[in-house]
Amino acid sequence: MSNVTSLAQHDTEDYGVRRDLAALYRLFVHYGWTDVIDTHISARAPGRPDEYFINPYGLMFDEITASSLLHMNFDGEVVTGDEEPNMAGHLIHTAVLKARPEINFVLHSHTRAGCAVSAMKDGLLPLSQHANIVRGTIAYHDYQVVTFAEDECELLGRDLGPNYLMVLRNHGLLACGRTAAEAFYYHYFMEMACKIQVDVLSSGAEMVIPPDNAIEDLVREGMPGEVPHGARGWPALMRMLERTQPDYKD
User: Which residue among 105, 114, 244, 248 has its CA within the 20 to 30 Å range from the CA of 142?
Assistant: First the structure.
């Protein structure tokens, strides 16, 4: 393959990943998962396992487009782009991408419900269908200030293990996937589970826990398999963005 052909292929593949990543940022806006300019979502650059795309620090998520994303390497250097990166984001995302070569998308949020559950000693409880679907692939990570703790990246990768979700204690949520659709799937179910848990606990009503066999069935359904989750719903989400925020592709 000539260098010209290789570059053209990279451009095409990069655009597809950039488009999916920009779509995830806009979906965060739609579902109310943003935290002003903070939090971040990343995608591994196709064919370059040590490089990735992420938002420039300072943009609201409804401003992010495929072309505005920064292209960075694992050393924290900007490969393409003129804006400053969020270094906390760099540390969190590279920790996951280094530890999990099969993962291509990483989502991090500070939602109110996610932060609330992250501060609960027992973590996510088996109170809902949403919770039990993701229950089998959740890890927990104790709080440290990511930009100050020298061992934070190593601990993040270690604590995540083979899971696709992590509760960052007193901080928020982290979801990952082999595809954009799969990362969204896990974050959506986890966020819904956290909202339901906060609602149930705040109601003061006596809780009902599903029977063990039902929990086990749902856990099996939600565990990662050979085919990434989320593919069925992703086209519908993209049609929604086409109707409401079509500039995400620019």
Answer: 105
